[in-house]
Design a protein that fits this description.
The chain is an alpha/beta fold. The chain has 10 helices and 7 strands. It is 43% helix and 15% strand. Helix 3 links the parallel strand 4 and strand 5.
């Protein structure tokens, strides 16, 4: 399969699963260049100052706040991360649902501008769920015939994801370029924001939650314009969703 740009495969460990409020405490990124021969790696842990690690998250990755006390805050490394992934496509396992949205939130908090939407995303979970539907460990065993050691450490998980991705290319005969490949695995993704609160269909934008679920934003703006202000001002929503809401409102105000 021909790649036009490098692909950065990455995995994060976090304080919990709340994209709006939790923090990244570990990231591993491995950049693979189009020739497949050259690789670069970025790795760091972070101190999630003021945010505790949820019990469920600790059970998964075993990282304690004490072990992170001397690590940098994410904002201290945010520009290095942007420099590492700029002009690249992205890859991961279930990264479209979690890793990318929480990374975007960290960029917002660090006030580090970066338009991640310019990157194509190759999510091994999406490929696998469409073909087989399994967890990472099962996917690794299915595609490689091996048992995944040290699961739920960032580097082990992302190395496993790269192995899965390469096996998927071979197994499903993805003899095409990245543009076509992106369309294959992301054809049913019509989210405007990473949290999926707004979807686009037939050039119309619809709300996907709450009292206005499945309603067109034009209709809601006419009958309940304050609804958009509520989303924009509420920290219940991710900063990405609030940013997209503001853009939607600004466009509606111009009509």
């Amino acid at each position: 399969m021909k790649f036009e740009k490098p692909i950065v495969f990455f995995d994060v460990e976090t304080t919990g699963l709340d994209i709006a409020k939790d923090r990244i405490i570990e990231i591993c990124m491995i950049k693979i260049f189009p020739d497949g021969k050259k690789k670069e790696k970025f790795y760091s842990k972070f101190n999630p100052v003021g945010v505790v690690i949820a019990d469920g998250a600790f059970e998964k990755h075993g990282v304690t706040l004490e072990s992170l006390k001397d690590e940098p805050e994410f904002k201290e490394k945010s520009q290095e991360i942007v420099d590492f992934i700029k002009d690249c496509d992205l890859g991961g396992y279930n990264c479209k649902r979690f890793d990318i949205p929480i990374l975007v939130e960290e960029f917002y908090r660090a006030q580090t501008p970066f338009n991640i939407r310019n990157a194509k995303v190759f999510d091994g979970f999406l490929i696998f769920s469409k073909m087989e539907s399994r967890k990472l460990e099962d996917a690794y065993r299915y595609y490689t015939g091996k048992v995944l050691e040290n699961a739920h450490t960032a580097e082990a998980d992302i190395l496993a994801t790269i192995d899965i991705f390469n096996s998927q290319i071979e197994k499903y005969n993805f003899e095409t370029n990245t543009e076509d490949f992106d369309k294959i695995i992301n054809s049913d993704n019509d989210n405007l924001d990473f949290a999926g609160k707004f979807k686009k269909k037939d050039n119309q934008v619809f709300i996907t939650f709450g009292k206005h679920k499945d309603k067109n934003v034009n209709e809601v703006f006419k009958t309940d314009p304050n609804y958009f202000d509520w989303i924009i001002s509420s920290d219940t929503f991710t900063q990405d969703t609030r940013y997209i809401t503001k853009r939607i409102k600004d466009r509606l105000c111009q009509k």
